[in-house]
Amino acid sequence: MGAVDNTAIQRLLHPRSIAILGASDNPIKLSGRPIELMKRFGYTGRLLPINARRSEVQGLPAFRSLDDIDGDIDLAMVMLPADKVVDGVRDCAKRGIPAAIVGASGFAEVGGRGEALQQQLQDVIAETGIRVLGPNCLGMFSLRDRALPTFTSAMDNGGELREGPVSFVSQSGAFGTFIFSAAQAAGLGISHFLNTGNEADLSVAEVLGGLVETDETKVLMAYLEGVHHGRELLQVARRAHELDKPILAVKVGRSEAGARAAQSHTASLAGEDAVFDGATRQHGIVRLDGMEQLLDAGLVFADGRRARGRRLSTLSLSGGAGVLMADQASSNGLQVQPWDEAWQRRMAEVIPPFGSPRNPVDLTATLISDPGMLRRALEITVEHPGTDMIAVLLGNSDNASGPLIDAIEQAYRSTDRPLVVVWTGGSGRPRRRLQDLGIPCFTDPGRAAAALGKLADFSLRPPLPAAERPDDIDDQVVRGILRDARQQGRVQLNEYESSRLIAAYGVPCSGAFPADDPDSAVAAARDLGGPVAVKLLSDHIGHKSDIGGVRLGLTGDATIRTAAAELLDIAREAGDPAARLLVQRMAGGDTELIVGIKRDPAFGPVVVVGFGGVLVEVLADSQVGVAPLDAAASKRLLTSLRGSRLFGEVRGKPARDLDAAADVVARLSWLAHDLADDIAELDVNPLLLDQVGKGVVAVDCLAVLTKPEK
């Protein structure tokens, strides 16, 4: 996203002049709708219909070609059949138009001829530098300028367009406009809406990158069906983080298809959706599960307020509703704590004696006959130092809604803390009035609590990773291991080579020696001392334990010799007569982790952490981060595991050395980053974690190389 690209995107977002290629005089036809919509809603710029057969289109002067137009043209909307689009876009580029929207379908989404057409379009884009939104897209809305180069029916519902601080980008056209319409109905003001369609050129990430730089955009929303430019999306997330502009994203398709046919545990744990989930969490993108959650979060984020903590104070007309809100708040990571006695006494002075001043505060139904009570109670709540967020729960009460809304508005304007209203039942008029005042209003306590929980998560988000490459990496050893494997035409390293590779990155590994036969295995065990493990050493057999290729805790020459002979027999039966043995010192530590790396098609090298051992897929307790990571981000990955309580003191066991584990994760993330072109997958499983001060040790490692390019 260079300066030139962003300039073109800004012209797309704020066009002062729009040419419509193939403009129809019929406002009902798709090619006539963009002009009709912009005339109807009052587009403030120059509208330039291109029609070779007419001198006038819908009452506007028409032009035979782009060359007949004087002055600059910021944007072209190409409303031509698919087989005419490539020539039309080429004409736009020759005319010096920086950006174009292609509405036609019939490209890659239909396969065959359409794929060839889309490639031709991409060739023109590459040759000329013009930026293109689409094809197969509904276009764009810029509500500030009333620029509506679109043919959607979303504008046919009547009523005024509600402009606001939220910009929305969707890969889906129709569903994106459904969300736009629902946002307008919910009182969520929109600045821009763009549909990226097939993304032959401009992706969601690039469009978000342009929007985040606009003054009118304070919140970014995205609807994604897939991610093809993951690293660009994370660059935008970093910029949004700097500007304190939240990105709210819905991504559909949580399947694990990307993990099929995996050679390592890492690949099966880090499917496409798991990588997206980890990448967005790591970079402060707020992921949501559907349209309602997206719009609810948009309502509470749109006013720009941030939560200083997770403490929620609730004032309710109904004690039952207050309890429900407390339950829902707790489920969403918020805290509904009883106020201390001094503040309870203050609240008790303004509510009925049969109410509750604890929090949730039960104002009782007396509120309906004494609406001024809400004003007094809110004044105290706003002053309360232990309140980070406020929720007001009301229902029905249409006749008393005027003074109640006045009290809410006064409290809302008097504080910068997030304040939401849940107004259930009634005519709906009070909710619409609150919407008009810009105060987030819901009909369900659970939805309000979920939105506030997301706001708290974002407001209290940790810094983005600022990883620094360790200065003790032995690059010479790394190059030697990879060179030898490549020269031998291998795509899998054996355990000894894999362990040497991670040791070169500073990962502690249990001492081990390779052995060719039972006698050399006995000699290696004597050199290592103490109990040993004897394992198959093969660059063909990935998971040794699956075929009984591991013996643990062995002592005594005879025992080791027998085990070694049995393992070599197993290797021959498994089809690898060239397999050797690895004799390894038994290591301490009773908490088994897995740390792995892989290359994701969208986000590049990623690191996976989880609870490991032979049951790693059964436990399925893992988290994913985009490499490289610093120690703090690595520690957050580990503590976000469902079983993270095992790192603390449990049943008399001392706490585990979590800092040492985080250091290993960070180092392996740098291995993933540095060797992204060479390492396809790598597992350290298990990484044994001991008590604080005793560190970690890797006792098994498997590395799979990328296949050489043909």
From TrEMBL:
It comes from the Bacteria. The keyword Ligase applies. Gene3D superfamilies: ATP-grasp fold, A domain (3.30.1490.20), ATP-grasp fold, B domain (3.30.470.20), NAD(P)-binding Rossmann-like Domain (3.40.50.720), Succinyl-CoA synthetase domains (3.40.50.261). Transmembrane segments: none annotated. Keywords: ATP-binding, Ligase, Nucleotide-binding. SUPFAM superfamilies: Glutathione synthetase ATP-binding domain-like (SSF56059), NAD(P)-binding Rossmann-fold domains (SSF51735), Succinyl-CoA synthetase domains (SSF52210). Pfam families: ATP-grasp_5, CoA_binding_2, Ligase_CoA_2, Succ_CoA_lig. One of its GO terms (molecular function) is ATP binding. Residues 12-107 form the CoA-binding domain. This is CoA-binding protein. It comes from Saccharopolyspora elongata.
